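Quick one before lunch.
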Amino acid sequence: MPDRQIAAAFDEPDCAVNRAKPAAERQLGCAAAALAPGAAAGGCAFDGAKIALQPITDAAHLVHGPIACDGNSWDSRNTGSSGPQLYRTGFTTDLSEIDIIQGGERRLARALRQVAESHRPAAIFVYVTCVPALIGDDVAAVCEAAADQLGLPVIPVDVPGFVGSKNLGNKLAGRVLLDRVVGTREPADPSPTDINLIGEYNVAGELWQVRPLLDRLGVRVRAAITGDARYHDVATAHRARLSMVVCSKAMVAFARGLHDRYGIPYFEGSFYGIGETSAALRQIALGLAAAGGPADLPARAEALIAEAEAQARARLSPYRARLTGRRVLLYTGGVKSWSVVAALQEMGLTVVGTSVRKSTEEDKDRARALLGDDAALFGQIPARELYGRLAAGEADLLMSGGRTQFVALKTRTPWLDINQERHHAYAGYDGAVALAAEVDAALHHPVWHQVRRPAPWDGAGASACR
Amino acid sequence: MSVIAPPAPARLDGRPAGRPAAKACAVNPLKISPALGGALAFLGIDRALPLLHGSQGCTAFALVLLVRHFREAIPLQTTAMSELNTILGGADNLEQAVATLRERASPRLIGLCSTALTETRDEDIRGDLRALMLRHPEWQDLAVVYAPTPDFAGSLEVGWASAVQAMIDALVDEGPRPRHRRQVNLLPASHMTPADVEAVREMIEAFDLSAVVLPDLSGSLDGHVPDDYVATTLGGTRVEDIAGMGAAQITLAVGEHMRGAAEALQRRTGVPFRVLERLTGLQAVDTFVETLMAISGRPAPESVRRERSRLVDAMLDGHGAFTGRSVAVAAEPDLLVSITRFLNELGCRIAAAVTSMPAASLAGVPGTAVVGDLDDLHRLTEAAGGADLVIANAHGQATADAVGAPLFRLGFPVFDRLGAGHRVSVGYRGTRDLLFDIGNLLIAGRTVPTARGHPREASDHDHLHAPAALGCS
Ligand code: SF4
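Model of the iron/sulfur cluster complex:
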C-alpha cells in the first residue's frame, strides 16, 4: 500500500526536475536518489507530513511508533492557532519492546479510544512511522474500525521515515487530505470569493498578516492548508473558487488534485516582499473575477495595492537608507530561494548568494533573473565551507535555518532565522517592513562591536606592554 | 510538621514497566529517546562524531533538539537507512557512513548508536562492525564504538549509560595496571550539565587528585568560540585517557544509572567504585567530600569549607521560603531522585513526581514516583490539590500554565531559556545557587490573605513584615 501512494506522489507532471528525466527514471521518482550514509542531513517523511497536517488545530495528531519519532519532536513548531490548542498536544503510542513483538495494533486501537474519549477531537490523524511499518501493523484496518466505533474521522497517514525526505512527507500528506478529507463535507455558506491558501502554515502568525488584506477585498480564506486550520474547513476546501500555492513546491500536487477533481484553478505565489504580495493579490482578484466572482474585484485590488504599497514603501525608506549595499547570504531552498531574494532586494540589500537546494528549474531561473549571476546560485554548503566563507567576510548577514545558526555565530557574523522555527512573521506588506526592521536590528546590533574586540592579551595594549 | 518529616518509604507505585494505569498512549511525552542520550555521551569525547544507525529522520530530530538545548553546532550523523536497506540489512550503509565520515571529518572516535529501526530487525550490528574493521585495516586510527540504544527500551538516561559502558568495554586497556594514587575516574550522570561536570572536577582537584572524566561535556559543550571550524567535537575526554582508566584508585559514578558502567570498569580493570546517588543537597555533598577526604588522605581545603559554610547559611536564611510549599516534578529517574530529595530536605511537599521509565533508584523519591508523561504530571498535581511550583523540562510550560504555577526548567530539553548547559546545581556552591533560584520563584509566587479574603500576590513589603506568610507559624 505505501508503495503505490509514493509512486503517485512522485507522478508530478508539473515538476520540471521530473519532466526532464527519461521515462524509466521518472518512474523511479525522486526517492531513487538514495541518501548518502554519513552525509545526509534532513527530516524524514513523517516529519514532513506532520508539518503539513499539524496546523489542523482541532484534530488530534497521534504518532504510532517508539519514542524517537514524537518524543524528540513534539511541541517544536511555532505555528499559531486562533482557537483550539489540541494540535499542540503530543500523542504517541510510545511502543515498547513487547508491543513490537506482539504487533502494535492493539495498543493503537486502545490509544485511539483514549484520545477520542479524553479529548473529543474533530478527527484523529494517525502517523505510521518506521517500526510499525516494518513489522506490518495494519494501521488502515485499525483506523477504519476505530472510526466506526468512535464516530469520528480516523485517518491513517502512512509516512514511515525510511521512505524518504521531509519533502516527500509533505506530498504524501497532501495526498491523504485529497483522498480522505477534502470533499467530505459541504460548506453552509459557500461564496464566490472563497479561496484556499495551500502550503501556508501560519508560521509565527504569517497568515494573520495576509488575512486582513483579503478581508478588505471581501475575499475569504475557505481553508488554509494547513495553517490555523479546522478539520471541517479543510473538508470543504473543494468549494473554493481558486487556490493559491504559497511558497511551496511540495503542495503543488495537492493544488492540481483540487483542480483535476473539482475544477478549482490554482496559481503559485508568495507573500514575501511588497512586489510579490501585490502580485499575489492581483492574481487572486483576477482569478476570482474570472471564476464568476465580483467583476469589480480587480479594480478594488488595484486600489488597495496602490494604497498599501505607498504606505509600505514610506515605512521602508528609513531602513533602505541604512541597509543599501549590505551583503546577505541566503541559505534556504525551494521557492524561498527566490521569493525571499526579491523581498531583500526591495530594502536595498545585496544578496551575494542563494541556496537553490530543493528548487526547481523554474525557481532557479527566477533566482538567476533576480541576481543576474549564475555564480550566486549554490546547492548544499557543507558546514565547514559555510564557516570558511563567513569567516572570510563574504557576507554581512546569514539568513538560514536554526541548524546553521551556530556556524554563523561562531564566526561572529549576524544571523537571522528564515525557516519554520522562527518567531517573527514576514508576510504581506507589514511583514516586509518587519523583515527590514529585523535585518536592520541584526546588522546594526551593538553586540558586534563588543564580541569582535580582540582579547586584552591579543590587542594593541598587549603589544605595547611587551 | 509532617511535610518536613523524613520521607516515608517509597515504592515504584507497585506497577510493572510502562505507563500508569491502563494508559495506551503517552500524552505530552516526557521521555527522550535513548539514542539521543547515547549520542550526548559520545559528544563528551574529544574529536568524536556520534552516528545514529537508522533512518535520517531520527538524527534530524535529535540534532535539532540538541542544537536548541546547547545552542551549539552539534556534529551528529546518520547511516540513512532506507526501506530497502532495512530489509536487506544495514552493513553496507554502516560501512559507507564510517568511510565518508572518516574521510570528511577525520574523527578519532565514531559513536554508533542504534535506533528502534535497526534493533527491531535484530541486526548483528556488533558482528557487522567487527567484520568491517577487519576489512579496513586503514581504519586503525579510528575507534568505532557501538552502543545499543533502541528507542523502545528506556529513556535518555539508559542511552547515556549504554554509551559509557560501551566505551569502557571497547577502549579501556584490560587487566590490572599500576595504580596512580592520585588518579580517580569520574562517571558523570546524564543530567549533569557541562558546568556541573566542571564544578565536580574542580572539587576533586581541590583535594589534589586528578580525574579522568568519562564523558566530559565540560570540554566539548561548554560553549567556547573556536578559532577554526571542526566537524567533530572539540574538547572532551581523550580516547588515550580512556584507555588508561585502569590506573585509577577508584571510580566515582554519579547516579544509580551509572552503576553498570562502573561495574564494567571494575570487571575490566579491578578498579573499585562508589556510586554517589546525587551531588545536590548538603548531606549528599558531605558524603562526596568525605569520600574525597578518604581517597586523598587530605583534609578538606579551606575553599571547600568556606563553600559549605555559605550553603549552610543559605539554608538557614532560605528554608522558610520552602516550608510546606508543594512542588510537582517530572524528570528522568536519577534527576528526579536528586531534586525531590533536595526539596524534601528543605521542607517542601512533593505534590507529584513523574518519571520517564521504571528504575530501581526511584525508591529514593519521597512519596510515590509514577512512570508517565506530562499529562500525568498535570493529573496527579490536580489530584494533590495543585502545586506552588512545577519543575520539568521546557515542555512543562503547558502543564505549569494549566496548574497555575511557575515553571522551573530542569533536565532536557530546555530550548526556551539561555544557558541550559551552564547552570550548576551540584556541590555546595551549586546547591546554594539552586536553592536561591527555586526559593526566589517560591517567594514570588506566594499569596497572602487580604482583608476581603481574596489572595493577592505577596510583595517585598510582606516579606519584611509578615513572616507568617512564609509558613513559619
Ligand atoms: S526516520 Fe522513522 S523512526 Fe526515525 S523519526 Fe522518522 S519515522 Fe521515526
